[in-house]
Predict the 3D structure of the following.
Amino acid sequence: MAKKSNLTYQDLQAQINALQTQAEEVRQQEVAEVVARIREAVQHYGLTAADLGFGGKARAASATPGGKRGRKPGPARKKAIGIIRFRDEAGHTWTGHGKRPQWFKDALESGKTPDDMKV
């Protein structure tokens, strides 16, 4: 059997609050130390916000060999082609996604239904 504690609920809550306060103080101290090390490295290497990926344009010079930055070039991505679901007599097409094209709206106003233009 477990040993029964003489602590009350209020005693435990007070200990929890004290530990949370202590933990936050330690966290703030650690954050201050990390920020100081980061500032030192930024100053030592002359880094900018752009070098760290925080916006702006990247510097022309780079720490990587050959001055190359960013991802390695790979095969170009092709834009996904949607499945054509609607077509009119003039050859206009629409996938049915996104804003309705004007030719589709005009066809509906002229009395056609979406089913009339389904592929």
The helical segments are 9-45, 102-109, 114-117. The chain has a mean pLDDT of 83.
